[in-house]
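Risk mitigation, structural track. In case the binding assays with adenosine-5'-triphosphate fail to produce interpretable data, a predicted complex structure has been prepared as a fallback.
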Amino acid sequence: MTLLDVRGLTVRTDDGRILVDDLSFTVAGGERLGLIGESGSGKSLTTLAVLGLLPDGMTSSGSVELAGTQMVGAAERSLTGVRGRDAAVVFQEPLTALDPLMRLGRQIAEPLARRTGLTGKRLRGAVHQALEQVRLPEPDRIARAFAHEVSGGQRQRVALAMALACEPKLLIADEPTTALDVSVQAEMLELIDGLVREREMAVLFVSHDLAVVSRVTDRVLVMKDGRAVEQGVVHDIVRAPRETYTRTLVASARKLESALDLRSAP
Ligand SMILES: Nc1ncnc2c1ncn2[C@@H]1O[C@H](COP(=O)(O)OP(=O)(O)OP(=O)(O)O)[C@@H](O)[C@H]1O
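Fallback model:
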């Protein structure tokens, strides 16, 4: 069943610049779609439009139906229920989602309490569990800490725990590993991959890196200058890209890969 149905989505600035141009795609329940393209191709604006979170000075037109709710042109009031419950987001920079002045445990407790109705000791237990699920060591210490007291990788895990706390049907991950040290990127990808599979959650995964996208998604949509260039099953796109731009993306990903092979050769 279709969970996210985007049709003819167009995002414009108030002065008439078109930043996302007539974009259409769908994500079925439990399906994992990657949005890939170079910097400035409109990936982030697409995810923000899906959540009804476009910045001031921008408007969207077309249709975005998320779990049956029309997000384009909807009143803010009707969208607050959709965010979190139907779709939750992890951004590139975890500090975007975290409140610097609130202990991390409380930030996870709020959405958890809303969904489960738990309070007191049982709620604290659920927060502990949520932090354990994202494989944070010493969950109780992390729960008492503030965002600036933990590492970047740990902050991103907390942001992921927050996004998962509402058990959304769709997880939107916008370059969730790009700001992390290379050494923790692979771990984070594996974690996201495992958790969404376990929960049969759908994913819209944004990245400029084809290798990253192919690790966690079934299908990809390639974007350039706000438009869809090509979409299809990851395997097909990597093996036989049809469009010139996609070919360039695949070729440069392969070049990096073969450089790695050469370096690791005996
Ligand atoms: N708040 C804003 N005001 C004006 N233009 C913006 C704003 N946010 C993004 N843009 C422009 O919209 C276009 C698409 O941006 P978007 O952030 O969606 O790209 P992206 O593919 O996610 O790239 P990146 O990976 O660099 O974030 C870019 O040309 C960008 O300069």
